[in-house]
Amino acid sequence: MVPNVMLSRHRYDTVKRLGKYIVMRGATILITTIIAIYIVILVANMGGYVDEIIKTEIQFYVYETIRNNPAYKGLNKSTIDRLAQEMIEREIKRLGLDRPFIYRSFNYLVDALTLNLGRSYRLTSASGSRQVKIVILERLPASILLFTSIQLMLFFSSLLTGLYLSRKYGSKVDRIIVSLSPLSSMPGWFYGLFLIMIFASWLRILPYGGIVDAPPPERPLLYALSVLKHMILPMLSWFIAYFAINTYSMRTFFLMFSSEDYVELAKAKGVPPREIERKYILRPTLPPIVTQLALLLISSWMGAIITENIFNWPGIGSLMWEAIANNDPPVMIGIVTIYAYLLAITVLLLDIIYALIDPRIKIGGAGT
Amino acid sequence: MIRKLRGFFRELLLYKSALAGIIIIASLVVLSLYAVITIPYEEAVKKWNSIEYWEGLPRNAMPSWVNFFTRNKLPETIILDTRGRGENINNINKTIVPLSGGKYIQRILLTFNYVYDDFPSEIILRIYSNSTKQFTSQITWVKPGGIEYILSRKLLRGYEAYYVSKDEDFLKRFNANLISKLGSKPSYDLDVVIALFAEEESSILSKDTVKVSKGEYKVIVDVLIGEEDVNKVQIDAKLTVYGKVYGIAGTDHRRRDLVLALLWGAPIALAFGLTASITIAFTQMFIASISAWYGKGMDFSIQRITEIFMVLPFLPMVLMISYFYKITIWRLLLVVILLSIFGSGVKSYRAMFLQIKELPYIEAATAYGASSFRIVLRYMIPKILPTMIPSIVLSVPDFVFLEAALALLGVGDPQAVTWGRVLEDAAREAALYKGYYYWILEPSAFLLITALGFAMLGLALDKIFNPRLREM
Asked: Could you report the predicted ipTM of this complex, rounded to two decimals?
């Protein structure tokens, strides 16, 4: 009976420690996220300067409507001025611009944190809505379709190639990949320029950009094919830019693990190579690989501002750029908030998973 | 020390890629020095943003050397100026022809030989008189074979710029003339340049067969002058027949010689990339060392600040700031540095410092009473420097391309003369659609070479300084 009590006592301690660890991590991540979002709110509003722009626009707009409205034609100037002043004040109040920015910035923060993304100042969705949520959701599929596919493709192809090369390093293929790695010193969009030049401008076999032919094909199958055709060049540009370096780092990573002492021991014991790879190399390298994949997928939701711009791809990246170029803080804050939340949740989940599987955390020394 | 350095270089040169990288970087440095010494930055900016300075150059001209590779020779620009500047003095002739009734004609005869296979891009005739009086002038165009056209009759007072290639009036007359001569109309929109330079046979009727009439062209400027003015009035003319090729790099849509931008792009790219990568790496390393050495509260706050900065999306933040505040390239550099000093590098350097901190020699230093300052600066940082150098070199292209990317989005410094700005102009003018490939390829080639140079050197350094990689 005694050992059993000991065991459950021990288990209780572990759960308690784990719980404390997770709560602490959750709290730090939450505070970090809140501060980051607040910084974005300050920058996106130019520290309140966007308000001034909006106020001037309201004034201009009100006087314009009064001038164009025949009902106000006969009135004298002071009455019109009074009317205009009233309308301006009403409009400013409606937008909540009558209170100081610092005060409102905290309102914005609360709104953002509760995912109450509000209405955009200028940008509208294709359906004409000004709900930031709708504007963002409309662009999301395009970004996810393109960049999540690119990231998945890059990740798994370089993982498998890296694993293969680590098995036969020094071979010809290995040398080629290593010598190609300087290609990655240039970003994907840069290769995009060349690819457009070759395949769209010169050979004229692939489109310059966009997501689908104009006018879009009616049949779903043809539509899908057209989208696929438009995805080739952006995907290829990222593949050229990042495949070699990703493969190179995967290979080096695996090589480092395969020269560990316990792998040598397993080899000496005569464990079959396949099993060594699975149990002795892949398993310990799994956590960092999973982390990498998760973070890649999260960042792919933001799209890529420059690649989307060059390929005219209607995703989140180009939405972000439109929001910046049109002084539309609610949209910018919306995008960044969702990104920050996704990132925070992913990081916390990964922490919890590792806390559950990593014996070091279970035993004590949680570390940071 | 010197022997160590020599050994290091010998080892470095064993890698061919390192040698190639060093050669590339060295030539970029030479190019930058040349740019900085020959044209001061302010002057380069002023020239680049001026319109008058580039007046004599053709728009969107390809580099001259394309003529070596094609059978169809593209035209160079021809300038004839009676004020005596330029090498074509022999082809300029000024005479005074007396008329009956006390009137005179000042006649300027400009002759040039046209031997190219393609049409010029534009023709502008500028006429200058030193009097404020008004005169009647007449301009005649003579093609090889003596075909004559009166281009226009104009009233001249002071300075007159006559955009020959935009003369719709003449074009109407020419078309009517062509129909009466050949019996049918051209099947395409014939423009003034073609009208003035094409052979007038049936080949002119189709866009595919229209040919340049090679030979001697004459432009005659006649100005009618009264007796009282004949010795006082001085008439000058400048004819510019814009070609389709220019210089070693060609020109852009505002007639600017791309050589200037390509040349000055080098020092800016190097300064931007190197300053950013070196400053960021050292600041991150310094912050990490403090975090690791002091631990506790200091470590906690530095780590939390780093995490906040890691949540902030870098590119959108840089874009917002540079778009809102319309900052210059050097302010941009500052923003990039400030946003990056708490980057992920702090985490990895901290991890290295934490390992170093446990090493026996640090323990020994603490035991004999070395100050924290001394330990961090003299014992910990030097240990980490070798691993930093490759990553500094490798990150230079990132910042060069960051500047180019911002320029491409149109938020770059509007004054700066960079490779990115040339790319932006090309993209905005739809160079890819119009087939001006040289315009995109030239700045891209410089960006590409710069990136490759730093990448090849950086990867070789990585193998030398991180011995674990070397055996692989």
From this structure: 0.86
